[in-house]
Amino acid sequence: MTDHAKVEAILFAAGEPVEITRLAQALELPETEVSALLEALSRHYAETGSALQVVRAGNAFQLGTREEFAPLIRTAMETKRMQPLTNAAMEALTIIAYNQPASKGFVERVRGIDSSSVINSLVEKGLLEEAGRIDVPGHPIGYRTTALFLRVFGLHSLEELPVPGKRTVETEETEQELAETDDLPET
Domains plus CATH for the chain? Predict the structure, then answer.
């Protein structure tokens, strides 16, 4: 295993900028040698036409993609991001957001249906995470929402969640817009 490959492995696995001092410590090499390895890796990517490049951010480095790939990557990521959550996923998120930490069993009792796959999917998407064991019989795993959940739903904290059953100006405006839509039957 070459030092060149070691630098590449660290930058790939980190997924964020790594200070040159941390690279030097991990590789047990002087910073000047690490700097030369980074330059060689950068040249290698350029010469081989790789989509990757070494990106410098101050005194830190990370792997990134070349700018010409940005539209392609953006399209692929938007397609992934634009997949809406199912009703089941929204129900499970709502139950956990308002009752966290909540177990799968609790969510299933509220929804009246097995929710294991829905919760596992939400954990995979990064919207939920394990919050340890709940102090109830059986000590099931509790789940809570994540920082990504807050970002996705435009919240700064859980205190901004709407109060259940409370009518808001936005709710009333949406209902008014729906009532004025010719395509919908009146209720």
Answer: 3-68 (1.10.10.10), 87-180 (1.10.10.10)
Highest mean pLDDT out of 53-62, 72-81, 95-104: 95-104
Q: What is the distance between the terminal CA atoms of the chain, rounded to a whole angstrom? A: 70
- How far apart are the C-alpha atoms of 140 and 150, rounded to whole Å? 24
Predicted model pTM: 0.48
* 3-state SS string for the chain: CCHHHHHHHHHHHHCCCEEHHHHHHHHCCCHHHHHHHHHHHHHHHHHHCCCEEEEEECCEEEEEECHHHHHHHHHHHHHHHCCCCCHHHHHHHHHHHHHCCECHHHHHHHHCCCCHHHHHHHHHCCCEEEEEECCCCCCCEEEEECHHHHHHCCCCCHHHCCCCCCCCHHHHHHHHHHHHCCCCCCC
pLDDT, position 39:
94
Percent of the chain with pLDDT over 70: 85
Confidence band, pLDDT 50/70/90 cuts, at residue 152: confident
| pLDDT score, position 1 | 86
